[in-house]
Amino acid sequence: MLVTEAPEVVSNDGEDVHRPIRVLLIEDDIDDFLLTWTLLDRVPGALFSLEWTDSYETGLAALRREAHDVCLLDCQLGARTGLELLTAAAEFGCRTPILLLTGVEDRDTDLAALRAGAAEYLVKQEITGPVLERALRYARQRAALLEEIRRLSVTDELTGLKNRRGFHLLGSQRIREYPADTQVLLMYADLDGLKSINDQFGHEAGDRAIQAVGSVLSRAFRASDVIARLGGDEFVVLAVDVPLHAERDIAWRIRHHLAAQNLAWTPAFELSISFGFVRHVLSSTLSLTELVAEADARMYEEKSARRRQREVARAPVPQPSESAA
């Protein structure tokens, strides 16, 4: 059944039950559009919303909006082809599954569609309502599963931040989005004393400490900044297009949120973070890996300086000798 709008019905486990499948049809033949409309409208027990566009250009623009669950794409669009559109969609990173429709079964086109990234290849003469409904439903479910796998592959399970792979993928992308001469700031942070926390209070307490540091960093930085846990007690943050002297403000926010966390902290230990900054101007030769290594070195300099300060503070004050009295 086709709908213009439908309320979302959500089950107890948070999964959409009756949300219509949002279908984009890119088809230059009005008769084929009407046939598709009729097939979807007559499928019992299934809900669809259908948007139709009739050209290569408008179809590509609609895909860029990422407002659909599935796309049905005609193999021939005037002077352009569906294979060309598939290639263009892949180039901008389209994640909407695309089902290619063709009037004639052809193995070469089938294989070319697969290589171009099509989720399915359907021959129009073989399409019935149930066949189309199943193809759309399966495509949406596969896309949702792939998206979850993709999310998990770049996410740190313990903190919900990006992991090492996610940091390098998203960080590299973020750098490419800005012009040369943009100020970029990278901070490397380390949770002090994690081994002691694990040894004295157990690994569950250590995990809570790591999660707390992730929360502190998330509150101290902007939503657009790339925050990641590289592993163990090590964190890194990439901030692009930052004002001069932002390091001072960021350091203040970290210490402020860390102090608030320690006030609310129930375990019998206090959280402490060491961190170091590096700042560079974006250029074609700027390496994210080199930035991380440089910030890591700065962080260890800061950690060593704090350790020396503590040793000086704990050193006994020499008593004056009797001859000096």
Looking at the overall shape, the CATH architecture of the largest domain is: 2-Layer Sandwich
Q: Give me the strand/helix succession.
A: EHEHEEEHEHEHHEHHEEHEH
Sheet with the most strands: spatial strand order: 2-1-3-6-7
Mean pLDDT: 86
Uncertain segments are 5-15
CATH class value of the largest domain: Alpha Beta
State the end-to-end CA separation. 100 Å
Q: What's the gyration radius in Å? A: 28 Å
Strand content: 15-25%
What's the structural domain tally? 2
Number of helices: 10
Q: Would you tell me which CATH topology of the largest domain applies?
A: Alpha-Beta Plaits
**Could you give the count of β-strands?**
11
Q: Give the name of the CATH superfamily of the largest domain.
A: Reverse transcriptase/Diguanylate cyclase domain
Structural shape: elongated
Q: Which sheet architecture does the biggest sheet show?
A: 5 strands, parallel
Q: What level of helicity do the residues show?
A: 40-55%
Provide the structure class. alpha/beta
